[in-house]
Amino acid sequence: AAWEARQVAQSNDHKRLCMLFRSGAVELWSTESGTKLSARRFARMPDQLRAASGGCAVLTGSEVMLVRPHDEATALAAGAVAIGGAGDALLVASHSEVRQFVAGAVAARWPIGGGVTAMTVVGERLVVGYANGSIEVHDAKTSAAIQLERTPASRPAVLLAGPRGLIFAGFSNGTLGAWNSLDGSRLRAARLHGRIAHMQVSQQRLFVASALGQSLRWDLQSFHLPYCAFMQLLWKRVGVTWQAGEAVESPPPNHA
Fold first, then answer.
1. pLDDT digits (tens, 9 = 90+) for 133-163
2. How far is it, in rounded angstroms, from Cα 116 to Cα 101?
3. pTM of whole model > 0.90?
4. Is 105 exposed, middle or buried (0-12, 13-18, 19+ CB in 10 A)?
5. Which helix (H) or strand (E) holds 110?
6. 3-state DSSP call for residue 199?
7. Torsion of Cα atoms, 6 then 12 then 14 then 18, to 10°
């Protein structure tokens, strides 16, 4: 159906909702009042949608448009191949660089290009996904880059920053996973039917949905706990230590 939502994006403060429909229409809604703030239809179906400062950013062809309240739409960038989000900031990739836009102005640049399909920012590190499935983490201060381990040979569709330096990645073949941005190690992986279309962290949980309607939820509570509280939780679930080559039931250490 023409009015079936193809992509959905929510602002960092959860006050604005962007929706891209199969008709090519983009709508901006207020989640507080439940009212439509703007609607704009594009002749060419937009490829990507992101919530950005001031409205909804869409990639249509090689042009990035920003849909603002009162049905306004302004051109933000040309020559783009992909867009991504980091809070309310917008990331735009061209064939030669990645630019970060804040409130419509360029706030940072990285000389990275060629085959970029998804992006996000973790702290001061830029995370870039490429069409061949590889994902790199670039340090803004040192220009050093590490590659995430054990990624599938599939196009990264969504990248999302998580708590404590985590990177969540969803791929076109339905694979999703969590990686440590500091050393690139993979911590967890799963697979859904269909391209990963949406990922969101809310209330200490990761919510994931595929383009074919399958979904899952990961509990991230342990990443938000102080060290001692985490050790108490771990000990309740494990309750053993490794001693002389054997698992031995032991009383918990003092982490009060």
1. 999 999 877 778 999 999 999 999 999 999 9
2. 17
3. no
4. exposed
5. strand 105-110
6. strand
7. -30
